[in-house]
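User: quick one, sequence for these tokens?
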């Protein structure tokens, strides 16, 4: 898709700090809820799932906050880690629910959470597995909300001491921002399911809208905007960060679709062509069906494989060839346009350090292999 020789930013600078914070937080919550007896240690299950993640959203928040903070002497990881950790708990909950909806049995190179629970019973029980996974995801959301509340309280307390003024409005803005962004993720997930069920071909605008609100904004716009709010940046800067996050996030999602077809399942942790099996109407699917050079036998192959759990090896290879021949060129054109739009806004920031970071993240989104 892009030049793989470019330097890719490793968004893992603070992964150990985030991991340690989450471990301590979950250990405390486990003690509080210890009176509830379950066959499975839900906190261990949640923790193990969390620690397999790249934690790129949390790292993006901290890295951008570092730069946006006007007084480096005031920088405190203690103040920012609750928000960063909350983003990872939200991400975990969304992924657990997403795997149930898509019926994916693998995530991050191991059994998805619902599959893990389904296998806990002597007789494989999908209903049990999905029920337990839904509850675990809900727990992750409420734990994240608790961290956000605690983070606002701690942040406000320290800033009141420094500035002798209340920060209630700032807390409200932060909580409102997170709640609204995640609400949009949920609605976009519903749109994704709707598009998969509908027989008609969705418009490109519908697909991009679903990408924007299901992945792009909460993965990139939200951490950047949250950093802006926490660092007391102007509404203009926060709006620019939101727009940059959208462009990078759309590239990130389209690259995800690319990996779902042409990637290495050992790196991605998910089966190749899973989107085809699940009947997902991705941007690659859109351009394939819109191709005016698609032959009748090629259309038949797509019809035979789309939303089918039984795709033979020979069919899979033929599908990859189809996508390569008919979808890659228009998708690359879309990616190049998004890339240029992102760079244009980045160059307007008048902050060289932030510009450098965001350009590195842009390269990361374009080149990631898992």
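Assistant:
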């Amino acid at each position: 898709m892009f030049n793989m020789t470019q330097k890719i930013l490793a968004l893992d600078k603070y992964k150990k700090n985030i991991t340690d914070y989450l471990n301590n937080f979950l250990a405390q919550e486990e003690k509080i809820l210890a009176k509830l007896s379950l066959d499975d240690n839900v906190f261990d299950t949640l923790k193990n799932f969390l620690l397999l993640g790249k934690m790129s959203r949390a790292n993006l928040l901290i890295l951008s906050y570092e730069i946006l903070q006007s007084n480096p002497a005031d920088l405190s990881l203690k103040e920012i880690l609750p928000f960063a950790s909350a983003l990872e708990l939200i991400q975990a909950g969304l992924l657990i629910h997403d795997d149930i909806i898509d019926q994916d049995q693998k995530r991050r190179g191991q059994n998805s959470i619902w599959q893990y629970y389904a296998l806990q019973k002597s007789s494989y029980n999908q209903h049990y597995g999905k029920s337990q996974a839904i509850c675990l995801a809900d727990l992750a959301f409420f734990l994240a909300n608790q961290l956000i509340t605690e983070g606002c309280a701690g942040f406000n307390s320290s800033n009141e001491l420094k500035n002798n003024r209340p920060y209630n409005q700032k807390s409200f803005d932060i909580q409102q921002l997170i709640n609204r962004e995640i609400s949009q993720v949920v609605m976009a997930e519903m749109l994704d399911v709707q598009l998969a069920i509908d027989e008609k071909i969705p418009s490109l605008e519908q697909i991009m809208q679903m990408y924007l609100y299901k992945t792009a904004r909460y993965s990139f716009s939200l951490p950047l905007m949250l950093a802006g709010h926490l660092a007391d940046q102007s509404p203009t800067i926060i709006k620019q960060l939101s727009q940059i996050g959208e462009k990078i996030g759309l590239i990130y999602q389209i690259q995800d679709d690319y990996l779902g077809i042409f990637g290495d399942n050992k790196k991605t942790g998910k089966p190749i062509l899973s989107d085809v099996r699940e009947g997902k109407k991705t941007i690659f699917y859109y351009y394939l069906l819109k191709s005016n050079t698609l032959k009748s036998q090629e259309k038949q192959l797509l019809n035979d494989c789309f939303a089918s759990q039984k795709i033979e090896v020979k069919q899979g290879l033929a599908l990859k060839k189809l996508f390569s021949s008919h979808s890659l060129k228009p998708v690359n054109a879309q990616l190049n346009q998004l890339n240029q739009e992102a760079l244009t806004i980045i160059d307007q920031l008048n902050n060289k350090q932030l510009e450098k970071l965001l350009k590195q993240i842009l390269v990361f989104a374009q080149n990631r292999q898992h």
